[in-house]
Amino acid sequence: MTERATLPPPTRPDLAVIGAGPAGLAATLAGAARGVHVTLIDSAPQPGGQFYRQPAPGLGARRPRALHHRWRTWERLRTGLDAHLAAGRVTLLSDRHVWCVERNTDPSPAPFTVHALLGPAQDESVAIRADGVLLATGAYEKVLPFPGWTLPGVVTAGGAQALLKGGLVLPGRTAVVAGTGPLLLPVATGLAAAGATVVALVESAAPKDFAQRARVLAAAPDKLAEGAGYAAQLVRHGVPLKLGHTVLEAHGGERLESVTVAALGPDGRPVPGTARRLPCDTLAVGHGLLPHTDLADGLGCRLDGPAVHVDDEQRTDVPGVWAAGEATGVGGAVLSLAEGHIAGRSAAARLRGAVPDPAEWAPADRARTRSRAFFDGLDGVYAPPARWAELVTDETVVCRCEEVTAGAVREAVGSLGAGDLRTVKLLTRAGMGWCQGRMCEAGVAGVAGCAPVPARRLPARPVPLGVLAAQPDRPPPPPPDR
Ligand SMILES: Cc1cc2nc3c(=O)[nH]c(=O)nc-3n(C[C@H](O)[C@H](O)[C@H](O)COP(=O)(O)OP(=O)(O)OC[C@H]3O[C@@H](n4cnc5c(N)ncnc54)[C@H](O)[C@@H]3O)c2cc1C
């Protein structure tokens, strides 16, 4: 099935934007306003992405803004999207999980085909033709293992946030929020504001880590104000902030009952005598974010470390493919909006055969420069404890899908001589399950003492065999030139 028939006549180039978060929405509005038809595709039922995740309509939320920041920006994006949808300049395909973007060897009728699985059953695939592709797929959470992390009641920080914003439910009544990264702040304050007792926010970054970046922080007064706002909310809700601390273990029988936290010494090890047990029914834990690069990787786009490489126009090194937002590096919603705006304007011009004038997006460029400088300056502050892997006991399951323990991973390295992540995977099956390492790769790499490698997951989503079998016969897409 193709959605081409629903699109306007091919007088306007078609841009497929994958991801309807801040970056994808900004790109869609910029592109549609400048003469391209945009097909906006997202796996979620509604646009908004992670930052502007909306409550399901059936819940009848009376004040959805209560859980949000920068609501006016969301209203502007939503109003703009609605206007473009009504005018037929944008087609919105929600609930579509893109599993592959194909570069067509014969570019007629279009150079790219985007393959997406439909809805919750995901047993049917649609193909969307496009002249250009803009990847705005955001980031996913990094969670490192520790004893007890698989107990019911332990959720990811972003998962807790998603339950709250999308389902208007609390993951529990008494929560500890732990790990590292700026995401912990809205999660702790959001849970507290929604009525949970937040026993503590446990952040492994120490006060001295922030003090060392005082100049970076001082150069971004808006970020300082945002941080101060969160601090004030923590105080108002009586949430203790434990900087330079970590969770050692989660305890419970059938489900989580308490966690042990301890102060970290300068060597990254827990300081003896500082361990404290905190009763709770929920642990919301996260250790940062990693860019979603599966689709870019499948297209053969160059990666810089964990992120998609882009130029000043947000173009990847594959002609006709742009990337924006956290897929190109984690840096928050403001940076995603700026990158999306620039990418959308660049794509609109290039797809119509024109050379864009960067002066036209100067304010977005300045926002991009400021945000990138801020997050580069913070680099290293939000890092998991240097010795976290030593705290993972041999019995701890590190790969949940395949139920592989830390002991098995250590044996693969120690006794069986595995020297890289791929060999560890082949010997233990760690990372071979449903999530294909999305959840466990960083943890397995840390326990194994192997360097993490850029994720290579094709297709980008698990695809039913029936869907693959139903694809028309044609040669497979050319492999990336790497
Ligand atoms: C779980 C989670 C929760 C977060 N919560 C907050 C928060 O509360 N406050 C905050 O300041 N920051 C939060 N962040 C950080 C936040 O992601 C960014 O600051 C901002 O949303 C990034 O915008 P983006 O457009 O780059 O990506 P996102 O907002 O992540 O949007 C990406 C979109 O792409 C879609 N997508 C990805 N892959 C595919 C695919 N293969 N097929 C179809 N669609 C796809 C996703 O469904 C998503 O809607 C969160 C991050 C995560 C991972």
Automatic annotation (TrEMBL):
It comes from the Bacteria. Residues 14-328 form the FAD/NAD(P)-binding domain. It comes from Streptomyces antibioticus. Keywords: Oxidoreductase. Residues 397-444 form the BFD-like [2Fe-2S]-binding domain. The keyword Oxidoreductase applies. This is Oxidase. Signal peptide: none annotated. InterPro entries: BFD-like_2Fe2S-bd_dom, BFD-like_2Fe2S-bd_dom_sf, FAD/NAD-bd_sf, FAD/NAD-binding_dom, Metab_Enz_Cyan_OpOx_G3PDH, Opine_Oxase_asu/HCN_bsu.
